[in-house]
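Example record

The entry below shows one chain as it appears in the dataset: sequence first, then structure tokens.
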Amino acid sequence: MTLLKIARMGHPVLLQPTQPVADTQAPAIRTLVADMIETMLDAGGAGLAAPQVHHWLALFVYHVPLARSTGEDDPPRPPSALINPVLEPVGDEMVDRLEGCLSIPDLRGWVPRHARVAYAGLDAHGHAVRGVASGFLANVLQHEYDHLNGILYPMRMANLGRMGFDSEMARYGERP
């Protein structure tokens, strides 16, 4: 496996919508998924979308570490892939979530997100998956799905005054 270079904010690859993955079982896709998982874990991320590693493909990888699980409805999850995903809000409830991004290192901001989302797509083996996510998983899925549509989390923020460097927010407190 290979660690991939992560595009940072300002690179045009992050602002363009992706194309569906035509052959989910192609060896190149399997390799890309494995490399993306390795890259995500090495970088300490909870998700990584194909555009972030310079591929205009509709796929992302994610996981829910035990420390980020928010309970029974949001259990820890091993590293997984979602290919050609579709997300839809479940209900109207919105929550503010503190987000960071591997493409925007050292910064975090409060982003309004749907509390629950329904998701569907294919896993790394080409099997159909679907479910309803809440908690941390709902946040990660929405964040990564945005990447597939050329959207970075600051574009979703209602108030850029609620964004800051990790070190400063740790020192002075997060402003919910």
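Notes for this example: The domain at 12-66+75-172 is CATH 3.90.45.10 (Peptide Deformylase). Strands lie at 47-49, 59-64, 77-89, 94-101, 104-114, 116-122, 128-134, 163-165.
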